[in-house]
Amino acid sequence: MTDDAALPAPAETFVPTVAGRGTARVAIEYCTQCRWLLRAAWVAQELLQTFRTRLGEVALVPGTDGVFRVTLDAGDGPVLLWDRRVDGGFPEVPDLKRRVRDAVAPDLALGHTDRAAARAADGEAGGPAEG
Hints:
It is a single chain. This protein is α+β, with helices and mostly antiparallel strands. About 35% of the residues lie in helices and about 20% in strands. It has helices at about 35-50, 85-90, 95-105, 110-120; strands spanning about 25-30, 55-65, 70-75, 80-85. The longest helix is centred in the middle third of the chain and has 15 residues, at about 35-50.
């Protein structure tokens, strides 16, 4: 028989509190049958690198049947940011970053991503100017 007092307390989910860390959760559901783990991991890495501590979590969620879906839960329940079947194909990372930024860090400048979007909106991204 063991003395219960000598045993460590049962493990509980430990979430460290870090000053300035966001609480938003991004979930990237990917198809394991299609072998899209590397693509999902790359998208996760891009989001984590860009948003650093402004996100609380980026989760990779295995799925099947050709799924590639990105959702964001900023506290009001999950919001669909991208669905391969609905939106067609895979998300462009700059567009996905803008969608996440608009929800969790509207004050964050995305640098060249924002400048490229502004040029495209102004019609400058199409190549040389006509003369």
